[in-house]
Amino acid sequence: MPARSPVRNPPEERLVNLVVALMATEQGLTKDAILGSVSGYREQTDAGAKKDALEKMFERDKENLRALGVPIETIGDRLDPDDLREARYRVPTAEYELPDDIEFSPAELALLHLAGGVWSESSMSAEARSGLRKIRALGIAVEDPIIGYSPRITVREPAFPVLQQAIEQSRVVTFPYLKPGEEAPRMRRVQPLALIEYEARWHVFAVDLDALADRTFLLSRIVGDVATTRASFDPSLREGAGERARAGLEELAARQSALIEVNPGSEAALRLSRRAQPASQGIRVPYVDVNILADELASYGPEVRVVEPDALREKVVARLTATVEAHGGVA
Fold first, then answer.
1. Residue 298, CB half-sphere, CA atoms under 13 Å: how many?
2. How many CA atoms lie less than 13 Å away from 288 in the CB half-sphere?
3. Cα–chain-centroid distance for residue 131?
4. Per residue in 49-70, pLDDT tens?
5. Fewest CB atoms within 10 A around its CB: which of 159, 173, 193, 314?
6. Does the structure show a pLDDT above 90 at 275?
7. CA 249, CA 63: separation in Å to the nearest integer?
8. pLDDT of the residue at 70
9. Is residue 232 pLDDT above 80, yes or no?
10. Bridge partners of 285?
């Protein structure tokens, strides 16, 4: 019998289907049930993929979802909680329930209804529905209808799914990358190890094969197609890569910060205060990339004033000046 061709499922669809399945059950699903029932894993199982490879894929998916704030619970043996051989996994729906004292105005309800048009039952993929039917067939009760977890739109960068698949396959990729201040992009050849969401932006942590060093690239600065090559690398390089990347970004942010004055009650105050520390003159905001922070601060207009560092203030002024000039004004 000829070997079956490999099954290709978009990684983001598999993650969505996993969340749907884990929210659909109160008692939780075992790893075997997930691998055999949830779309994205089931096809790989049916195609003859090795179980240890699928289990590693599931472990990485759990890490990615937890990094995004999805509270995945692990339920072990009651008599021996440390025994996880038959562990069950779930996403407790109570984590997503609104407090009883929250009320919405008619205008707010209208906006929620509009948003529901984007995240509606009809947006759930056929594969997700099929997975839920298989879960029910296992005798596992699904307490509530599962709607609105497979979006019609995506907020990720176009490079995300290609990089995620290359990470799973341990394949070298190339892409054009444009750094601030450079006139033209440079082609990068890297071993992608992990995708990291940090400060609401996606990064890929990788080994730069030309520099022979670890590098973190901002996905929004990839200005062309990501090409997956035939070259592969040792999958063990991926182990702990996400934690190393996040630690590196946090360490960089801890070493540099900006002193900023903000107008009380403004949008800038609301957004910046979430990651800032109070200071005697405004707030102190840690940052990783001065150009990204300059873009954000310029978008707030007169709601913010940069006290220090000088380099950041100059970049914000330059952006505001360019905006005025582009609209025919005088800076």
1. 19
2. 18
3. 23
4. 888 888 888 888 888 888 777 8
5. 314
6. no
7. 18
8. 82
9. yes
10. 258
Q: What's the pTM value of the predicted model, to 2 decimals?
A: 0.53
Cβ distance 54 to 45 under 8 Å?
Answer: yes
Q: From 296, 23, 302, 57, select the one nearest 140 (Cα to Cα).
A: 23
Residue 10 has pLDDT above 80, yes or no: no
Residue 77 has pLDDT above 70, yes or no: no
Residue with tokens 């069950």: 88
Which residues belong to CATH 2.30.30 in the chain?
Answer: 160-252
CA atoms of 256 and 33, how far apart (whole Å) = 47
Q: Are 38 and 21 in contact (CB under 8 A)?
A: yes
Rounded CA gap, 46 and 53, in Å? 14
Nearest-angstrom CA–CA distance, 70 and 92:
10
130 pLDDT above the threshold of 60: no
The type of residue at 76 is G
139 phi-psi bin (left φ>0, alpha ψ -120 to 50, beta other): left
Tokens of 216: 């973190």
Whether 312 has a pLDDT exceeding 90, the answer reads yes
- Cβ neighbors of 10 (< 8 A, separation 6 or more) are 161
Given the candidates 3.30.1490, 1.10.760, 3.40.50, 2.30.30, the CATH classification of the domain at 160-252 is 2.30.30
Q: How far apart are CA 222 and CA 159, in angstroms?
A: 7
Pairing relation of β-strands 186-198 and 201-208?
antiparallel
Q: Alpha helices of the chain — where are they, by DSSP H?
A: 11-23, 31-37, 42-46, 51-67, 106-118, 126-137, 160-169, 241-255, 267-273, 290-299, 310-326
Q: Tokens 């100059």 belong to which residue? A: 314
Calculate Rg over the CA atoms of the chain: 23
Both structure tokens of 237: 């390089």
